[in-house]
Specification:
This protein has twelve helices and no strands. It is mainly alpha-helical. The model has no long low-confidence stretch (mean pLDDT 92).
């Protein structure tokens, strides 16, 4: 498509991807519904069943819009901790996606071969991402998996930083990519699991992802050409970001375990609350006495 419309070939990649996004967004606007009650494709019986399942899933907490829940999210220090964890993960995420071909090329591969050699690390990362998600769901543990994946990524960047062996460096790419990419869905799930109430959760997840995406701005200054071919400052910077994330993940895991233990000692077990008792605290979100955090 080079020269088509007077534009270089690479620009059409962004044009076509952008057009596809707009088309999908337009279709989604017409066919996606905010609530079961507004879904025209559901029968009254199906709407009632979906509503029942949603009620069970949100533990009887409020789901109506109220600006109070917006401010609750902004004032929740736990969400801000997750924002810092996220930018510590998303900065390496964007750096890897932008510069992995450049890093692999320094191992002695040509341009085309370097592009191909970036595929295997992503395949391995896909396996770890799915496996980690399934296991964390089954065990109801998020923090330990995030700590493990952060340490995996740190190991990979240390291998890239410290070794002069091309083989070791390439293996380090596997560790780095698998560790970073696996933590993206883990982090969103962990933060969302621990925010009570639909509006507060929506705002909290937006804060989480929005702040993390600032890592894309930072990533453009990580691997500067003047540091080629070793890129030691870049590797060291990402190790620092990941170290911040793993430290905060350890802190949050410890805090949430302690808080759950405190609530278990002071209040009844969540399943012992009646519907009326839960309704009395439906506006408290994750501060409700029957709410328990996912650790």
């Amino acid at each position: 498509m080079k020269g088509l419309g007077g534009r270089p070939g690479w620009s059409w990649i962004f044009i076509l991807e952008g057009l596809l996004t707009l088309i999908v967004a337009g279709v989604a606007f017409l066919f996606m519904h905010d609530y079961p009650a507004t879904a025209k494709f559901l029968t009254p019986e199906e709407k009632h069943e979906v509503q029942r399942r949603l009620e069970l899933d949100r533990s009887s907490l409020a789901d109506e819009f109220n600006v109070k829940y917006f401010w609750d999210a902004l004032k929740d220090w736990k969400i801000w901790i997750h924002m810092l964890i996220t930018i510590g993960i998303y900065t390496p995420l964007y750096s890897i996606s932008l510069f992995l071909p450049t890093i692999v090329k320094t191992l002695g591969y040509t341009n085309n071969t370097a592009q191909l050699m970036t595929v295997p690390p992503y395949i391995v990362a896909c396996f770890f991402c799915i496996t980690g998600g399934v296991l964390s769901d089954r065990t109801q543990q998020r923090g330990l998996f995030m700590i493990g994946f952060c340490l995996m990524a740190i190991t990979g960047f240390i291998m890239l930083l410290a070794s002069s062996s091309f083989t070791v460096k390439y293996i380090g790419c596997f560790f780095a990519v698998a560790g970073v990419y696996s933590n993206v869905p883990q982090g969103v799930a962990w933060n969302g699991n621990n925010i009570g109430g639909s509006v507060k959760r929506g705002v909290g997840i937006a804060m989480h992802v929005g702040f993390g995406n600032l890592g894309g701005v930072i990533s453009g200054f990580i691997y500067l050409s003047k540091y080629s071919p070793l890129y030691r400052p870049g590797h060291a910077t990402l190790i620092g970001f990941l170290t911040m994330s793993v430290t905060l993940c350890c802190f949050m895991t410890f805090y949430l375990r302690r808080e759950n233990a405190r609530r278990d000692a002071e209040f009844k077990r969540p399943e012992e609350y009646s519907t009326e008792e839960k309704a009395m605290e439906r506006g408290k979100g994750d501060n409700a006495s029957f709410f328990r955090y996912t650790v």
